[in-house]
Design brief:
Blueprint: E1 3-5, E2 11-16, E3 22-26, E4 31-34, H1 42-51, E5 58-62, H2 68-71, H3 74-81, E6 84-88, H4 92-97, H5 108-120, H6 122-125, E7 134-136, E8 140-141, E9 149-153, E10 162-166, E11 170-174, H7 193-204, E12 210-213, E13 219-220, H8 221-242
Parallel strand pairs: 4-5, 5-6, 6-7, 11-12
Antiparallel strand pairs: 1-2, 2-3, 3-4, 8-9, 9-10, 10-11, 12-13
């Protein structure tokens, strides 16, 4: 099980990997779960949480966004842990419908997959509706909960995407970037790539040196910086061609 530790002593454990990642933050007195994975991953999720031998229950569940592969286990976790669920306000209607529209593809094959996926839609990629406790409609600090954690809006992959900034050192970023490819962090699916690039800049404006994605491996600040500059240059060239 991969893990990281901030200077302040917050520990971050990767408790799901493979199809999608899930992370648990332990402060020593409080535990925060980030994303829950698909329904089929619940047994593994539960086993890995139990392996940590936590002395306290999970206090908060934060969803980086509400695509099915990140939120299908919300209800069971909420019932078992009696935890508060944080999610973007922009997900409110989707949660009520039990389905968040799949994002568009950013490349040829993902575009085709997205088109087919939207045809199958809710039946294949839905989730049980759930009741969030706190809707996020702006960047917020969790100081009131005695946590050195900040939730920031990082739209692009989806409108409801948020990232979790831990001690201003490590960020859990959901699908704002992918750690799957060696030469790119570009997600294969995104509703608005321009917004996503702005979100990369926003993440670079933090002091985080490490970014933990919803898919794949950790991403270093230097790689994010390189990708951000590359996409900025690409956008400038593309606009010049259109003139």
């Amino acid at each position: 099980m991969n893990s990281w530790k901030t200077k302040q002593g917050y520990e971050i454990f990767q408790i799901l990997s493979g199809r999608s990642n899930s992370y648990l933050i332990s402060t020593g007195t409080q535990n925060i779960l980030i994303d829950t994975g698909k329904k089929s991953a619940y047994r593994k999720l539960k086993q890995n949480i139990e392996l940590l031998k936590l002395t306290n229950k999970i206090s908060f569940l934060i969803l980086t966004h509400t695509h099915y592969d990140h939120c299908q286990n919300v209800n069971v976790i909420k019932d078992q842990e009696n935890c508060k669920v944080f999610v973007s306000l922009k997900a409110k209607e989707s949660i009520e419908n039990g389905y968040t529209v799949l994002p568009k593809g950013t490349m040829i094959i993902p575009k085709l997959i997205s088109k087919i996926g939207r045809m199958i839609a809710k039946k294949r990629f839905g989730y049980k509706t759930f009741m969030p406790d706190i809707f996020i409609n702006k960047d917020v600090d969790l100081n009131d909960y005695h946590l050195d954690i900040k939730l920031i809006e990082t739209s692009g992959h989806s409108a409801d995407s948020i990232s979790v900034i831990i001690d201003n050192e490590i960020a859990v970023v959901g699908d704002a970037m992918f750690g799957v490819f060696k030469n790119s962090i570009m997600p294969p699916f995104a509703d608005n790539t321009e917004e996503m690039i702005k979100s990369w800049e926003k993440l670079l404006n933090t002091e985080c040196s490490l970014f933990l994605p919803g898919h794949g491996s950790e991403i270093r600040r230097e790689f994010l910086q390189k990708e951000f500059i590359k996409m900025q240059n690409y956008g400038t060239c593309f606009k010049a061609i259109l003139k």
